[in-house]
Amino acid sequence: MPELPEVETIARSLRPELTGREIVSAQLLWPRTLAMPSAEQFVEQITGQKILGVTRRAKYLDLQLVTYHLFIHLRMSGDLTIKDAAYQPEKHDRLILGLSDGRQLVFNDTRKFGRVWLTAHPEDVIEGLGPEPFDPAFTRGILYSRLIERRRQVKPLLLDQAFLAGLGNIYTDEALHLSGVHPLRVSDTITQDEANRLYQAIQSVLLAGIEHNGASFDWVYRGGSFQNYFRVYGREGQPCPVCGTPIQRIVVGQRGTHFCPICQVK
Predict the structure, then answer these.
(1) d(Cα 71, Cα 123) in Å, to the nearest integer?
(2) Active-site option among 12, 150, 255, 261
(3) Annotated catalytic residue within 2, 5, 133, 156
């Protein structure tokens, strides 16, 4: 699943291509892709809307329109690309938006888990999300307070989008290794110093991911190179880049989790 760096990369690539364009048509090829409103309302409401900007909130793409916000969550296999006027729908295309310059914005989703929302009220979609890692209001002290207020294993907690928005399996494993925190640590046992290291590590791995256009980790998301710089993720049995100990893999909260048993303190 694309995480914050991958979604940020997509938003940055689409922004100059879409900003200022008008949506002149909408083909909803698989109705269940649409979370809200109804299919009829969607086509009526989005047609004629000008795209004012393309941003990101957590793992959601946000196309800001004159009257509405078009939120797109790629989930497991979603892909959003721009095609020329001659493009014909393919098997796994779920939504195609015609643009005023003749091109088409295509949402392709093989596994059908991706969702689209059109709403005039963004809080309908994103109200329950936690803070953004790069929000100036999200400080080391805030992270520490949020950690010790809960009593949960730190790996599943960081994956909880209501706790902190945008992290997924890859960047959580990378941040925990960089900070030296074991994924099974209970959050209210983490010290202020450890929280400070974790805060810095989260920002560092996300920035590195964005710098390398995300990670191309499967057949869905392509074009990034951060996978070449993984410290632990997907490296079971390979040497830790810090101490040389073989990286271990366990399952935490039903998610494959990679860590160094020496560098990460339990």
Answers:
(1) 11
(2) 255
(3) 2
Between CA 261 and CA 200 the distance in angstroms is: 21
- pLDDT (tens digit per residue) in 202-252: 999 999 999 999 888 665 666 788 999 999 999 999 999 999 999 999 999
* DSSP bridge pairs for 250: 257
pLDDT in tens, 69-125: 999 999 988 999 999 999 999 999 999 999 999 999 999 999 999 999 999 999 999
255 included as an active-site residue: yes
Hey, what domains does the chain have and what are their CATH numbers?
4-126 (3.20.190.10), 140-259 (1.10.8.50)
To the query of whether residue 59 is one of the catalytic residues in this protein, the response is yes
Amino acid at 205: V
Catalytic residue among 21, 56, 59, 103: 59
Q: Is 127 a catalytic residue?
A: no
Q: pTM score, two decimals?
A: 0.94
Active site residue 2: yes
Closest CA to 7 of 62, 46, 51, 52: 62
